[in-house]
Write a structure and sequence with these properties.
- By secondary structure, this protein is an alpha+beta fold.
- The chain is built from two helices and five strands; from the N terminus they run αβββββα.
- The chain has helices at 2-34, 106-144; strands spanning 37-47, 53-60, 63-70, 88-94, 97-103.
- Strands 3-2-1-4-5 form a five-stranded antiparallel sheet, with helices on one face.
- It is elongated and about 75 Å long.
- The protein starts with a helix and ends in a 6-residue tail after the last helix.
């Protein structure tokens, strides 16, 4: 049991990296979802060199804001290849924080972040289990001079 403590701690640390990195975006999406409104935004820039980044301008109560997103099809927008400068896309925002709008749908952002977190958690679990298994086998091999292959 004691030999599993370190791998479990390593797995927990590695599994928490993605949620920590994405927390700011997820928190912003959750804030938008508390009082969700939509407005049409206009695609003003397409940046293929920045992970297919799409920059959108939108207006709320006479104020103009900008937001951007990468992998737009992941958030309910057309794919990057289908979008053109000047296209209209939905922007999801909270009237209390209109500057924090999302190009696309905020709930899709929360779902995508949760999926990524689960994926990375499972990935690191597989890596941790593999390392522990190989380490265990190598320790047994050293002790008993077991053959590396059968």
């Amino acid at each position: 049991m004691k030999s599993l403590v370190t791998p479990v701690i390593i797995w927990l640390i590695l599994s928490s990296v993605f949620p920590i990195i994405s927390w700011r975006t997820t928190a912003r999406a959750l804030r938008v979802l508390r009082n969700s409104h939509f407005v049409d935004g206009t695609v003003v820039e397409l940046r293929p060199q920045f992970h297919q980044n799409v920059v959108v301008r939108y207006e709320v109560n006479g104020m103009t804001y900008r937001t951007d997103t990468f992998q737009p099809d992941r958030y309910g927008l057309p794919s990057f290849k289908e979008l053109k400068v000047g296209d209209k896309v939905p922007v999801n925002y909270n009237p209390a924080f209109p500057q924090n709008g999302f190009a696309g749908y905020a709930e899709k952002n929360v779902v995508a972040d949760a999926q990524d977190s689960f994926f990375f958690s499972f990935f690191w679990l597989l890596i941790t289990v593999s390392v522990v298994t190989v380490r265990h086998y190598l320790v047994q091999w050293r002790r008993h001079k077991l053959p590396l292959t059968r």
